[in-house]
Specification:
By secondary structure, the chain is an alpha+beta fold. The chain is 26% helix and 23% strand. It has one domain. Strands 1, 2, 3, 5, 6, 7, 9, 10 and 11 form a nine-stranded mixed sheet that branches.
Length: 277
């Protein structure tokens, strides 16, 4: 069986390594449960899909975020999200991803939409915080809306500075075409230019989205490993607990602290916490 819960079990078993490995990618991940491992492109890790998906689907995508402070490092080119369509990811971002996954035995399109997680490590003054956090912690509004509203700010600023008059209808029509990040990931080749131009989107977390921020999230203590999952209903929380109990031994599960944190913009999340020592 493969899943993000099994992946977290692997982190839990070798948690002391988070205190010693210099680069997060050097952590001793259990590669048997991975369909691919990449460097410099999303996803950094992908979990294999289960053939029997009665309990665990598998197939989750993971990005590594390593920082030498208690801030989440910036997201380069890929806006953080809770889910990704594997078709869009394979066709536009990583042409070799499909081959890697199929070589690992995955029927890639049997699970067309994948849950996204971020493995975040921060280090500060000799202390370490590690969080495996669901993408919904960062995606508090849909990615398309985020891009559109950002360009709306640019459009308003440029219109005001130029003195042009644009109708609300024309503004809406212009903004309607600026919703897809893929439009900016292409290299633009302009005649008579000796360089090609490519726009890249970089995302930086605000304080509300910084899971390492002790002022907003004091429950995430120094020198701890945390599994952070959305808690939108008692039933969903019970399902997280049930699945984690299936993966961990009774003693290991009972050693965890089970906490609830409130995201200022996106409701409650359940946290399974363990000391790194």
């Amino acid at each position: 069986m493969f899943s993000i819960y099994h992946f977290w079990k692997n982190l839990f078993q070798y948690k002391t390594n988070f205190l010693s490995v210099n680069d997060l990618e050097d952590f001793p991940f259990n590669t048997d449960m991975l369909s691919c491992k990449n460097k410099g492109i999303f996803p950094d890790l992908a979990i294999r899909i289960n053939q029997d998906r009665l309990i665990f689907n598998g197939g989750e995508l993971i990005e590594l975020k390593d920082s030498k402070s208690y801030t989440v490092s910036s997201f380069n080119s890929t806006i953080p999200t809770r889910r990704k369509k594997i078709k869009d990811l394979i066709l536009t971002e990583n042409s070799s991803l499909r081959q890697k996954m199929e070589d690992a035995g995955d029927d890639v399109f049997s699970l067309p939409e994948r849950e996204v997680y971020y493995l975040v490590r921060g280090r500060k003054k000799g202390h370490t915080k590690v969080c495996l956090v669901h993408g919904s912690f960062f995606e508090t509004i849909h990615t398309d809306e985020l891009i559109q509203q950002s360009f709306s700010q640019v459009l308003v600023e440029r219109v005001q500075k130029s003195g042009l008059q644009l109708s609300d209808r024309l503004k809406a029509e212009i903004l309607s075409i600026f919703t897809d990040q893929r439009a900016f990931s292409k290299v633009r080749d302009i005649q008579k230019s000796s360089v090609k131009l490519r726009f890249r989107i970089m995302s930086e977390v605000k304080p509300e989205g910084n899971i390492l921020n002790a002022r907003i999230y004091p429950q995430i203590e120094d020198d701890t490993l945390n599994f952070v999952l959305p808690f939108y209903s008692p039933e969903e929380n019970a399902e997280h607990i049930r699945k984690l109990k299936l993966v961990l031994s009774q003693d290991d599960f009972e050693s965890l602290k089970v906490l609830t944190i409130k995201h200022p913009l996106n409701g409650e999340f359940v946290v399974f916490q363990s000391s790194l020592s």
